[in-house]
Q: What sequence folds into this?
């Protein structure tokens, strides 16, 4: 089933001479994991933010589960956003709330304002949140304040908060950028496994090409706001990587052969 369909998407920020995203189009099926790579400023975050209209695109169409979010009114946007989970580089947890309360916040979009303000979550939802956290190895941290966790733990809580929403699409903008390599792997494995298990389509912006190749079956390569590669990870060769980053591969390599941009 098609979860996301983007066509002709364009965004030029006010005062900018060039579009940040230019005539971008692609589609994603349920359960598909797509890694977006490209240099700093290539337009990866802008693309992601245009999908759920955190940034307003100037042109093009975005359909989520066949329903158009571009041009939709506030009520429809709010409803469509429930289907789209977001994970950022910085977890955006509320430090003074417990891990469990943070994950419960994932359900806020579904509740009346009053119930949300008073934190009255249905018992069944609370059980679901606890189950999710236990499955992720965070069971012992349920009542710990989120601010006391490590970066990798916080990121896992952020992912579970997004999953609580029951999204059809998960957008991850550099989810591992501020993590050490071991925690980064744990977080990427969690994202991959949970999306696979639930048939969630996952679009993930990544700075490390080797991580993108390891976890995503399909790669979208952006340069100057445009998609210049969209295809299987297995067919992404050195020449294409050089084209995406505009640099020779040798300049993109660090210790252990990891490619970073
Ligand atoms: N809020 C904004 N206002 C004006 N220009 C912006 C804004 N956000 C991004 N840009 C510009 O749009 C272009 C694309 O930026 P974007 O953040 O989408 O790139 P990116 O690929 O996510 O980069 P990075 O890898 O550094 O996160 C850049 O030229 C950037 O300076
Ligand atoms: Mg970015």
A:
């Amino acid at each position: 089933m098609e979860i996301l369909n983007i066509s002709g998407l364009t965004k030029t920020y006010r005062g900018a001479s060039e579009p940040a995203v230019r005539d971008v189009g692609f589609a994603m099926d349920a359960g598909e994991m797509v890694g977006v790579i490209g240099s700093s400023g290539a337009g990866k975050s802008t693309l992601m933010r245009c999908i759920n209209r955190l940034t307003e695109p100037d042109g093009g169409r975005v359909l989520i589960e066949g329903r158009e979010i571009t041009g939709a009114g506030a009520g429809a946007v709010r409803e469509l956003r429930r289907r789209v989970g977001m994970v950022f580089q910085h977890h955006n947890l509320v430090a003074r709330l417990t891990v469990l309360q943070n994950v419960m916040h994932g359900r806020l979009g579904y509740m009346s304002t009053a119930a949300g303000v008073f934190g009255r979550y249905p018992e069944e939802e609370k059980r679901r949140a606890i189950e999710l956290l236990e499955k992720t190895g965070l069971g012992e941290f349920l009542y710990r304040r989120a601010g006391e966790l490590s970066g990798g733990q916080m990121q896992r809580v952020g992912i579970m908060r997004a999953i609580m929403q029951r999204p059809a699409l998960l957008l991850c903008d550099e989810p591992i950028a501020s993590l050490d390599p071991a925690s980064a792997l744990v977080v990427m494995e969690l994202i991959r496994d949970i999306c696979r298990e639930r048939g969630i389509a996952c679009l993930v912006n990544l700075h490390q090409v080797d991580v993108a190749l390891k976890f995503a079956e399909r790669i979208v390569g952006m340069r100057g706001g445009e998609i210049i590669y969209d295809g299987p990870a297995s067919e992404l060769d050195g020449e294409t990587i050089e084209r995406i980053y505009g640099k020779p591969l040798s300049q993109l390599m660090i210790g252990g052969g990891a490619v970073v941009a």
